[in-house]
Amino acid sequence: MSKWLKRIYVFGIFIFLYAPILILIIFSFNDSRSRVKWEGFSLHWYSELFRDTELMSALYTTLSVGILSALAATVIGTAAAIGIRNMRRIPRAVVLNVTYIPVLNPDIVTGVALMLLFVVIRLEMGYVTLLLSHITFNIPYVIFSVLPKLRQLDRYLYEAAMDLGARPFQAFRKAVLPEIMPGVVAALLLTFTLSIDDFVISFFTTGSSVQNLATVIYSMARRGINPKINVLSTLLFTTVMSLLLLLNLKDTGSGAVAVEGGARPVSRGNGQDRHG
Amino acid sequence: MKSKLPAFPYLVFMAVFILVPLLLVAYYGFTDKQGTFTLEFFRKFLEPLYLKVFARSIWLALVSTLLCLVIGYPLAMILAGDTFKKKNILIVLFIVPMWMNFLVRTYAWLTLLENNGLINSFLDFLHLPKLELLYNNRAVVMGMVYNFLPFMVLPIHSVLVKIDRSLIEAAEDLGADRLRVFSRVTLPLSVPGVLSGITMVFMPSITTFVISRLLGGGKTTLVGDVIEQQFLTVYNWNFGAAISLFMMAVILLSMALLSRIDRGKEGLL
Questions:
Q1: What is the CATH number of domain A52-267?
Q2: Which of A17, B86, B133, B250 has a C-alpha 20 to 30 A away from that of B14?
Q3: A–B: how many Cβ contacts below 8 A?
């Protein structure tokens, strides 16, 4: 293949990937309801969106569940990774295999399984069930992103800190945490995006009273097309783009975070982060 | 730091939110409404109606996976090669659409493929006949390829960039032409990436219900649709659970098989 042929091929695929999104964005500025005819630039649908209380509360739910589930999963998962690291071989293998289940299982199965649990324990479907579900599917990703950092850690670092008079938690915070920080930060970003991206599990674990963006868009899209969805998509897209740009401007190394982050299912079965 | 204690909160969490829910699925799948043991719902899945759905799911998922492989492998190779200087930026750009909500990505295609959508308006403008683009198998496959292509490209790419350059040079020194280098060196070494790419596209394709609902318009029922209907509209949870168990078994078994091929890693089964 000549260089030009390769370039055209890559360019073509990028058009395939971006054209639908760009068209979506362009038509969010359209003055009319039409998604075909351009009737002049306007921010009409943007003001409509901000007046739509259903969508605004969905946006709030998405963001707050994203932030809270990312934080909770990162704390629980980082602690878990440390504990798992200290386990004997067989219990560790058992725990890791169970941890793999939500990663490998189809989202729909995870969704219905959690729904059954909430029904059986009579927890009313809503914000709490949504948040718990998101924490559940997020924790494994934290564990698998912190464990490799722990393995790179010098075995005696913690003991050295203790010898120098640190209390256990101090030794963790001052000696261990800085070393595993890249993994923890990557986990935080990854789990936040996973939470925002999820539809299937949210769909099964939230009630009619609490909706996030994905479930609202789903019910809207089934009723036909609504320019407000275009506006929301545009906002989501620009947020993601600017986050990525910021990360890449800060230092080029963070590009790796973006790659890891987007590559969620890449870790599925790839074996690259199957540790012991 | 020898304590296992920090893992304790997670172990409790894991038991309650991972193990118990799965046991519940198993319980519902193997019992009837009265709670007595039965295999009725697994048998029900073997009825022609559902077998047809299952066959269609497998077929559409296979077609999408194959398309992703055919489109994605060359792309992964180009991105791993030296055609472009700023490869990292390209890869980030390739991933950005994945950060958009999956639903938004699927919705975007509605706009294009609709009867009065952009593509048909364009055809109309050229005085060409309109096409039935939406609500058929093709539209569903399109949606799957669009959504899952990166899942094929990224693992293949990550394997390709790790291939030792000197192996390729050695093959060239030994007189292999480019085709031979590819078929004897590059391709065999990229098999693990291809395998994980295949599972990562096939798995979400076979269980999706969003793509088939939005782009297939309910005309192309897939296994995912059946599960969703059983839980949320028909309220036959036992049947829904049985199908879920079946799908889970299919997927976990194929993953275990693949990891055997991929060999020697602790973890999976």
A1: 1.10.3720.10
A2: B250
A3: 300
